[in-house]
Amino acid sequence: MRSKGFLVFKYALSSLSSTVVDFGLFYVLFLATAHAGGSTFVGWSVSAVVAFYIQKHWVFGLHRATPLQKLGVRYGMGVLLGMALNVGGVWLLCDEMGLSPWFSRVSVALLAWYLIFLFNRYFVFAPSNES
Questions:
Q1: What pLDDT, on a 0 to 100 scale, did the predictor assign at position 112?
Q2: pLDDT at site 63
Q3: Which of 73, 105, 128, 131 has the greatest CB tally within 10 Å of its CB?
Q4: Contact 101/94 with Cβ under 8 angstroms?
């Protein structure tokens, strides 16, 4: 059985990879448009696809022919949840409360990261989902 600490470590590495994509797009788009919410939406959406493949195969180790439709629906729910947490949180902290876009983006991303780890571990990539 995999320990939670080891899974969190592997999940953190997969998140680092997708975060490079996310924040890179956020940076470029924010410079071009000055809209933190829209920039967050695009960066987070692209990084979600990157994270799915890394997490499915490496972090949670679902190597068998797990139906992509089954995982896709569940992962899609997590994407929507994560997107709502990220975009809503950045919008609230930055656009409505006037806090720094980077402070808003980083603080919201950290909270959403752990919540989505739990969601992915226990709902999306649970070993019982493997066929």
A1: 92
A2: 67
A3: 105
A4: yes
Q: Do 54 and 14 touch, CB atoms closer than 8 A?
A: yes
Name every residue whose Cβ is closer than 8 Å to that of residue 17 and which is 6 or more positions away in sequence.
Answer: 50, 51, 54
pTM: 0.70
Cβ atoms within 10 A of the Cβ of 84, count? 11
Q: How confident is the model at residue 109 (pLDDT cuts 50, 70, 90)?
A: confident
Question: Residue 48, exposed/middle/buried by CB under 10 A (0-12, 13-18, 19+)?
Answer: buried
Nearest to 119 by CA among 84, 83, 86, 74: 74
From 51, 50, 74, 76, select the one nearest 130 (Cα to Cα): 74
